Amino acid sequence: xxxxxxxxxxxxxxxxxxxxxxxxxxxxxxxxxxxxxxxxxxxxxxxxxxxxxxxxxxxxxxxxxxxxxxxxxxxxxxxxxxxxxxxxxxxxxxxxxxxxxxxxxxxxxxxxxxxxxxxxxxxxxxxxxxxxxxxxxxxxxxxxxxxxxxxxxxxxxxxxxxxxxxxxxxxxxxxxxxxxxxxxxxxxxxxxxxxxxxxx
Length: 200
Fold this sequence. Notes:
This is General stress protein 17M-like domain-containing protein. It comes from Ensifer oleiphilus. The protein has one domain (about 1-200). The chain has eight helices and six strands. The protein has helices at about 10-25, 45-50, 90-100, 110-115, 120-135, 150-155, 165-170, 185-200; strands at about 1-10, 30-35, 60, 75-80, 85-90, 135-145. It has a six-stranded antiparallel beta sheet, with helices on both faces. A hairpin with a 3-residue loop joins strand 4 and strand 5 (about 85-90). Helix 1 (about 10-25) runs antiparallel to helix 6, helix 3 crosses helix 4 (about 110-115) and helix 5 (about 120-135) packs across helix 7.
């Protein structure tokens, strides 16, 4: 099995990618999504607990509304440095476990650790994590070796972010790697990021 990932500037683009991946025959359990929830688009009974856990680990609560059966297990969690996210699938569960078990200042956990553990190069994992921090949505699928090209084509057709272009854009701003000790982006900052990249 190989891991194929794509970063999207909007939740709608990522949702389209997830639907297409599932339609191509990739099982629900092999597709994951982690989306910024900085604007509070999704709520849960445990949303407050999830937000409070942002500094210490991850709180999980079932997301209410808006999921539309896209992926099973859609829920809310907080990831240090990223803030509140809506997440579903195997990557989300792995990231939650790593975030909850991480000691501040310790080994890489959260999204970066989950991605690298699944075979994504660390340099790319940092860009993906930063992209979610800035309001993006990450879609990741586990696929058979022979299905990698098809899965990547699906993600690209759904308007995925060109990772090299985004890495270069971040570096032009002085960014070098995802830092989970930084404050999450505010809703206003997320909107500024989305506007900036919508014009590229």
